[in-house]
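Because showing beats explaining, we think one record worth quoting, sequence and backbone structure tokens together, and here it is:
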Amino acid sequence: MKKVLLLITLLLMAGCSVIPALNQPLEITDSTGHTEILDGVPNRIAIAGKATIMVQDAIYLFPEAREKVIALENRSQSVYSFLPLVDPGLDGKDLFEKNVGPEQIAAVQPQLVLMKSFMAEKMGEPLGQLGLPVLYLDLETPEAFYQDIQTLGQVFGDQKRAEEITEFYQSRVAAIEEAVSGVTADQKPDVLVLQYSDKDGEVAFKVPPASWLQTRLVEISGGNPVWKDLDSSGGWVVVNLEQVAAWDPDQVFIISYNGDASEVKVSLLENPIWSNFRAIQNDELFAFAYDFYSWDQPDSRWILGLEWLATKIQPELTTHINILEEVKEFYSVLYGMDQESIDSAVMPLLTGDIP
């Protein structure tokens, strides 16, 4: 008993939390309001459900994830695009097939399952019935992202790291907000963000809902998202060229999740219909920045997407932002990559209109 008391005293003197050390019951409420009581800081964590990359990339901001994540679900934006760079033990983890079921997840005996919030009804409830605790990450807005990072700080027993991550993001958002704070409504360019797809050979352009991160990024960057009043609450909505012409925005940003948006940009510049649009005439058509994944998503890279957008939407006010240096800082501070690895494995992948 004396040894235990001595350990507690030493931990308190060092500023450490004794709860993770003693593995006492841990109550966590996530950003959706869902609460789980865990036996202690979990050592076996599984990631499952749709939008896996967004969940995993947030989780791997914490170094502890390398040891504690024991299973992941592989989906269209593959876990093997990025994680091997930050988790040398990835090959030793269980890899769920796409749309894995609750029984398969239970078979790996996780102490906690993490997934996107919209998976709660389809996956969370059945997992709960099997006795598996589940916590949800929302990630869809900067505010939700910060809350999710605090949740993960509890999950990993590392609130100090959670604060470091949050400060990294908030300081950069604040710098952009300050830079564009004096921009009046009539000084904000009309901006259109379009996702390009050619599924089954059928070309389509889509806009995001007003509440989604893509819209927020444009607003924070000092732009006016022209699609904001469109009824698109259910997800990406297809828009035709007549609607694009009606908006006739000052700037157009093209997203392509399946490849290089720069190739799409080239094809649009060669299209005589698109040549009538103001953005094309003024050389304001941009291929959205991309490395392993597109920077517009509610993935950890949204902060790079925000900084990049700001340099395009309000270039005269954001000359302090060097995107290439920000990329290096991002992977160094947030994922612990050394400069050599960043130069060899990240920088060659940069596509889109990046300097």
User: Anything to note?
Assistant: The mean pLDDT is 90. The radius of gyration is 22 Å. The CA atoms of residues 194 and 207 lie 5 Å apart. The longest strand covers residues 190-197.
